[in-house]
Amino acid sequence: MQTTKNEFKQFLSDNFKGLRLRKPLFYSWCFGLRFDLQLGNTDTDEYFHEVTRRASTIFQSAFDNSDRVFLVLKDYKYKRKKIRISDFTFKQINQLKKEEISYSKEKKLYDTTDKFDIRNVAIIKLISNRINHKKILTAISHSDFPTRKPRLDKNEFLTSKEIYFINIDKKLIFHMYDDRGLDIVSVERETIRPIYKKYNDWIFEYDKKQINKQFE
User: Fold this and answer.
1) CA of 78: how far to CAs of 86, 117, 119, 146, 156, in Å?
2) DSSP state letters, 156-190
3) Element (H or E) spanning 57, and its range?
4) Rounded to a whole number, what is the distance in angstroms from the first to the last CA of the chain?
5) How far is residue 67's CA from residue 187's CA, in Å, rounded to a whole number?
6) How far apart are the C-alpha atoms of 60 and 63, rounded to whole Å?
7) 10 Å Cβ neighbour count for 53?
8) Do 138 and 53 touch, CB atoms closer than 8 A?
9) CA–CA dist 105, 37 (Å, integer)
10) Segments making up each domain of the chain, as ranges
11) Distances 80 to 14, 36, 75, 76, 120 between C-alpha atoms, Å
12) Which of 35, 51, 97, 200 could crosslink 141 through cysteines, CB 3.0-4.6 Å?
């Protein structure tokens, strides 16, 4: 029986050949969208409410409740640090069991010359409706704001964690990198065309010309 880790690797190889899950995802693939989540001043509750609203709205457009998903959590490995079952992200998954989590390590994700650039990786295969995506996205929006809750890490630390949602059925990847924005890439251009049309006003102005060309 194939492990979740091997199944995930095979999925990427079959559908996103050569792609590494890392920031900025949008610039690493041919078909993608990049959304601006910001509106107003970052020192207000209203600002973060709008960030989460936009991110959650786009997530719900990209994932149906019954879609099969790989949730991939990456974290910088510092000394003997591990991703534990008590992790905030894991707590947002309904009835998660230890045996559902597949662990691995990834080297030189961002710096090919740094032997200490190592990430702990956790992969979970599940159905979309088990994920409390709104709470995870809210925590991601707080990544650079240590006093705001909830957080991906405890004790008001700045986090190195990255979370990728891979839709197995629609063959797309969703990554919100922080309060500023999120990326979606897909195997087929037509998969993301409805999202492109519906939320066109939220697309980053800087990337709009490049994105528009995909759908001409």
Assistant:
1) 18, 9, 9, 20, 17
2) T-----EEEEEETTTTEEEEEEETTEEEEEESSHH
3) helix 45-62
4) 43
5) 16
6) 5
7) 14
8) no
9) 31
10) 4-214
11) 33, 36, 12, 11, 10
12) 51
- Please report the pLDDT score of residue 1 as a whole number: 60
Mean pLDDT of 147-156: 88
Q: Residue 101 corresponds to which tokens in the numbers above?
A: 């989590």
Helix (H, G, I), strand (E, B) or coil at 98: helix
CB atoms within 10 A of CB 2: 9
Are the beta carbons of 32 and 26 closer than 8 angstroms? yes
Question: pLDDT grade, residue 194 (50/70/90)?
Answer: very high
The answer to whether the predicted template modeling score (pTM) of the entire model surpasses 0.90 is: yes
Cα 208 to Cα 203: distance, rounded to the nearest angstrom: 6
Instruction: Report the chain's mean pLDDT, rounded to a whole number.
Output: 95
Q: Which two tokens stand for residue 61?
A: 């457009």
Q: Map tokens 């037509």 to a residue.
A: 190
29 contacts 211 by C-beta, under 8 angstroms: no
User: For residue 204, what pLDDT is reported?
Assistant: 97
Q: Is the pLDDT of residue 197 over 90?
A: yes
